[in-house]
Amino acid sequence: MxxxxxxxxxxxxxxxxxxxxLQASGRYSFRREEAxxxxxxxxxAFRAAARRLVERRRLAVPRxxxxxxxxxxxxxxxxxxxxxxxxxxxxxxxxxxxxxxxSAAALHGAAHEQPQEFQVVxxxxxxxxxxxxxxxxxxxxxxxxxxxxxxxxxxxxxxxVSTPEATALDLVAYCRLAGHLGNVATVLAELSEKLDAGELxxxxxxxxxxxxxxxxxxxxxxVGEETLAESLxxxxxxxxxxxxxxxxxxxxxxxxxxxxxxxxxxxxxxxxV
Length: 273
Hints:
Elements: H1 15-24, E1 29-31, H2 32-39, H3 43-55, E2 59-63, E3 66-69, H4 86-93, E4 97-99, H5 101-107, E5 118-122, E6 129-131, E7 134-140, E8 149-153, E9 158-162, H6 164-173, H7 181-191, H8 197-207, H9 210-222, H10 226-239, E10 244-245, E11 256-258, E12 263-265
Parallel strand pairs: 5-7, 10-12
Antiparallel strand pairs: 1-3, 2-3, 4-5, 6-7, 8-9, 11-12
Helix pairs in contact: 5-6, 6-7, 6-8, 6-9, 8-10, 9-10
């Protein structure tokens, strides 16, 4: 009996029982305050009980004061998938967000390679979070609120995800986080069937920087999606932006110019099809 006291509260309920009841109701995350209100008891007792359940891999803690329930089938990974709790986590942090980049592309069916991290776009910097084997990377974007998003159903509710068109633009804007330009082009080839030309232009006008529009158009031409690219080509022709290098982290060099997109082609992009 002495062994179990740290997990007990003054009303006789155990934190472990609370976690079991939560999972039975289909919920897989909770805040410290919620559990404390339900269970009562002292803060030291709660901490001891939570620490014990974390050690047993029954709970994971991606952020202080926020707990993820780990079902038995995910015990080896140390956590259920991030999609199960990301919406609740961002509500806990009080941050607007959307799931983006390679994680969004995979959700839209462009899963050329399984993303090595769960990529979440936010308006202000946040340090990464690791939950079991899952790494959550937070990508800062100035025009977060202007980015078109959609709601995607998850096993536990829903989460905000960039639209296919916004995802395409983000992959180009943050190509370093998407592997490299060849990988971006390969993902775009798979994502193209979900893209709508009109929505692509609207997304470009709403929340994209013009260099990303230019580079995306060039890559869409490269993967044979000239029709999709045409709406962006008209935008580039109207805006007449300054020429930019295809790969932004390298000098433009003596690469060939692509006048349609006002691009200096300073890297040969290989598409893995």
